[in-house]
Amino acid sequence: METNKPSDHFFSDFDRIKREKVFHDEQALNRLHAFSSPENFLFTDEQYLAHESWVRTAVLKLGKLKGQRILDLGCGHGMAAVLFARQGASVTALDVSSGYLAETKNRALANGFQLNVLAACAELLPFADNSFDLIWGNAILHHLNLNFAPNEILRVLAPNGKAVFCEPITFSYLTHWIRDFVIKNSEKKHTSDEESLTWNTLLHLKRSFPNLIWEGNQFLGSIPRLLRLFWLNGLFDSADQFFCRNIFVYNRLCRYAILEVQKPS
Q1: Is 0.85 topped by the overall pTM?
Q2: Helix, strand, coil percentages, rounded to 5, for the chain
Q3: Are strands 213-217 and 256-262 parallel, antiparallel or unpaired?
Q4: Packing angle between helix 98-110 and helix 79-86, nearest 10 degrees?
Q5: Residue-range domains of the chain with CATH
Q6: Contacts of 108 (CB under 8 A, 6+ apart)
Q7: What are the residue ranges in the chain where pLDDT is below 50?
Q8: CB neighbours (10 Å) of residue 88?
Q9: What is the structure's pLDDT at 164?
């Protein structure tokens, strides 16, 4: 599949981006009741790192954060951006949703930080070439037009820079069924345009990101979450980590993947 330049067909994608903005602005508005005072924005690093089984592993892949210029792409509620600022990084938080950006700004201020917060879409990033040493994205790529966004990500990433993404995947019929079941039985809503990454999507990304490597996360770990037996999370997550490290095909059963991209020098 040939990768298009943003100038070719980008503006035909405007309606999708607008729908994403409206959806996430509404989500952010619905969250306001939980933040009646600045204290409600406070959180520990551990609360963020442990909130999903893949987050800690993915954050560690970023390496040293102190002094690094990092872009939180699709920052959402801003917890990752604040965590990076605590580690001494120079953080830019970007999202299409002005509602979520307001939450990110409030969370940063409540935790004693000021971030560069910017409203923009990932398909046309408003930054100069080589602007960031690191790029972080948690559940963002599957919302994007992947004919455009990968080129922009590489463009703004500095030589030898690294991008790490955590993404939902459906590489098998079983994980497709699990995802559908989770969506139907979850209070969390999804946009009409988002699609989890498939094996073909991954191959397409590999053409855009020649140095892309990936690993799966959370297959058995889905069971206690589906059954709400949360006290079993640690045991099942540990089993997932063991099987993912030792049996490559097991990674394709997982419901999430961690993607790591290194830009050549």
Answers
A1: yes
A2: 45, 20, 35
A3: antiparallel
A4: 40
A5: 6-262 (3.40.50.150)
A6: 78, 81, 82, 85, 93, 114, 115, 117
A7: 1-4, 6-7
A8: 12
A9: 98
